[in-house]
Design brief:
Alpha/beta knot
């Protein structure tokens, strides 16, 4: 099983960026200075790569070798272009999944596993604010990660607009909806948006989706774990469309 790879040093990370490797996250030493380090920061911002500033103790947990104040993790899989993915599925009824604010790797892995089981055509993740695609994600997905194309975009809004320009209906799964998933007609190509159980879907995304649906809940519980909720909604879509 392919796992995430960590690389150390400013020049090594710069080369990985130039070679367009799929970098999951970069950790930078707090207070680090110098022109080369500043150039790396500039490249990180240009490419929209997820990063954080950490103390030296955090970097040394990765390795005691000369990290030069920077450590990067290359994702264990390659991401695809959303435009290419949509083009690939133009001639069939396709279901896509967008994940907003899913930060737990095991939740992400479980969602990918279910998506693979029902034949989802692709999963779209934001460049920042999303769980890393690492060895835990791969393991939890039970191999599903290698059969469902993954996409990373700078902003989920852009992905929604792109789906809409291709006549792919965008549907948010939110407790604020009036209709339940069992009352909704999931017809044609769809892009489903799921948010985390604590914060839900960002308001800016809810405003631009074509429709919203919810899962019925008893008064004793406000929400489901997001991976469970994904399973419920995807199997209801599959039941109606029989796309598996």
């Amino acid at each position: 099983m392919k796992t995430a790879q960590e690389i150390y040093g400013i020049r090594a990370i710069m080369e990985a960026i130039v070679q367009e490797k799929t970098i999951d996250k970069i950790w930078l030493l707090k207070g680090q200075q110098g022109p080369l380090f500043k150039h790396l920061e500039q490249k990180i911002h240009e490419k929209g790569i997820s990063y954080s500033y950490v103390p030296v103790e955090r970097l040394e947990r990765f390795s005691h070798q000369n990290h030069q104040g920077a450590v990067a993790r290359i994702a264990p899989i390659n991401f695809v272009s959303l435009e290419d993915l949509i083009e690939l599925n133009t001639d069939k009824k396709a279901v896509y999944l967008l994940l907003d604010g899913i930060t737990d790797t095991r939740n992400l892995g479980a969602i990918i596993r279910t998506a693979a089981a029902v034949g989802v055509c692709g999963i779209v993740l934001p460049q920042t604010g999303s769980a890393p695609v690492n060895a835990d994600t791969v393991k939890t997905s039970a191999g599903g990660i290698f059969s469902v194309p993954l996409v990373k975009v700078n902003h989920l809004k852009d992905a929604l607009f792109l789906f809409q320009t291709h006549d792919i209906k965008t549907i948010a799964v939110s407790e604020k909806a009036e209709k339940t998933a069992y009352e909704y007609n999931f017809n044609g190509s769809l892009a489903l948006i799921m948010g985390s159980e604590d914060k839900g879907i960002h308001k800016g995304l809810l405003k631009i989706t074509d429709d919203t649906v919810k899962l019925p809940m008893s008064d004793q519980m406000e929400s489901l774990n997001v991976s469970v909720a994904c399973g419920v909604i995807l199997y209801e879509v599959q039941r109606q469309q029989n796309y598996c």
